[in-house]
Amino acid sequence: MKPAVFLDRDGVLTIPEFRDGRSFAPRTLEAFQIYPDAPACVRELKQAGFLVVVVTNQPDVGAGIVAQDVVEEMHVRLRADVPVDDIEVCYETREQATDRRKPGAGMLKDAARRWGIDLGASFMVGDRDSDIEAARRAGCTAVFIDLGYSDAGPTRQAATVSSLREATDWILRRGEPACVSDAGGRHANDHRI
Length: 193
What we know:
The protein is of the alpha/beta class.
């Protein structure tokens, strides 16, 4: 079994679009931009022995707003620049949601089965409460990137940081999970970096 770092896409690896204090996934290839430090962060995580798996909700496809082939091309571009091991995508809207859609843990569990991932030794990095809840449900340590959105942030993360760089540094200092799921018992206090 191997440890992994699960990364949300928009707001973690890629620059989201902002409207009214909220973030949204880019809807066009022209708007799809990768954070400049994302490739280096992912390389460092991989060099430390982690698998790196992107887990992303893309409900605009399920809602008919964005074509699936546009999102797939975004992922071709992401893989060309950032050395991730895998990308798990859920196209469901809230109304269509199964356990694959975050805050469900389905994408993390599917990747764990496919790659032989030890979820209890793994991390989830995200910028929304749904990412943190997915981590809790999967038994991973959660790291929240606070981008200052207008909606309330999560409260059950092991650390709060302001970027993927800070999340990467925090994970590499730890090397093991700082908290586990409800079934495991212990939870670390939130550490703001």
